[in-house]
Amino acid sequence: MAEQVAKLKKRQWYPIIAPKQFEHVVLGETLVNDPNAMLGKTLSHSLMNLTNDSKRQNVNIHFKVVEVEGDKAKTKIIGYQIIPSSVKRFVRRNSEKMDISFTCDTADNVFIRVKPLVITKADVKGSVAARLRNSIASFLSKTIKKMTYDELINDLILHKLQSLMRENLNKIYPLKVCEIRYVGLEDRDRPQEAKVEAETAEQK
Known about the structure:
Layout: H1 2-9, E1 12-17, E2 26-32, E3 42-46, H2 47-51, E4 59-69, E5 72-82, H3 84-90, E6 97-99, E7 102-105, E8 111-120, H4 126-145, H5 149-157, H6 160-169, E9 175-185, H7 199-203
Parallel strand pairs: 1-5
Antiparallel strand pairs: 1-2, 3-4, 4-5, 5-9, 6-8, 7-8, 8-9
């Protein structure tokens, strides 16, 4: 019992620091005996709080502690995600939802999963829908391949990639929603699904 109390007293609060994309702000603190115990710890923050932009309240950024320097835990961004409740609000009647998932590499060989979300202004079927789905995956794969992972994250945060995707896809059919609902690091050794998932379900 005395040993447990002694260990408890040795615990300290350590700050967890955001990466350069968010100017190394403090994301939070954690209480541990050994600073190295923070390695691998994950946490999420609203993009609204990180950027002071109320329009980004529907997006969460996921972080992971990758380094301990002195009394600080440094993180990297491992994911960008629109919260599920916001995705549901995007969907309306008389429109076509294209919720796609695929994996690709960045220019610096970071393997990621990308889940774009595209909703047309009207219900579309057949060749137009198929062309849209193929164009979404093709455009994003080629564009991301030219970007480093940090550049990709920066463009997602600034909504540049989403705007570029809308501009490209609007040439095929007018869109009501053109977003990327998720980007996250993926285990390269994990068995992968088909290049574009859910396509069969969308066509039913």
